[in-house]
Amino acid sequence: MVDELEEQMIAKTEELVEEKKGEEAVAEATELAKLDPKDAIVWFVKGKAHYVDNQFEDALSCFSKAAQIEQENPQIWHMMGYVLISLNRLPEAEEALAYTKATQPTNAEAVCALGICQVMQNKQSEARDNFEAAIALNKSISLAMLEHFHDKFFSVSKETGSSTKAMIERVLETLKIVR
Hints:
By secondary structure, this protein is mainly alpha-helical. It is 80% helix and 0% strand.
């Protein structure tokens, strides 16, 4: 059970995460974990703090602890998918995001992230299906995610094949036209 002090600390950590103040968020979350190490929410919030601070191994450890406590929480698996993508552990990321999609089929962000993970593994057909599903659920979120991913990964990656780049660019152009 979360008491008032923990609730305040969770809220403060979440606020620091939103403000992208990773170091401060990690410090707050570390204190929070000392108070209640058996609470999945505490480990989830701490994982997000590490993620924002680009401490992906630490984030994965926290999300794993949260998942051990609350195994069926799709939000935990969703964030774990992002961390696993960041660590280039793509098959595991795909599994985590597929679970999220199965339990939250209307979660456009998770469906789009699953497509991104699949395109990184050169699974173009599956990726295209998930991009189409994500776009049908929420065009603006899907467009924002794909643009961000294109700008930060695809456009600078020398390892991404030209057919994969072309597919992402076609999806982006289609989304921009239909906006």
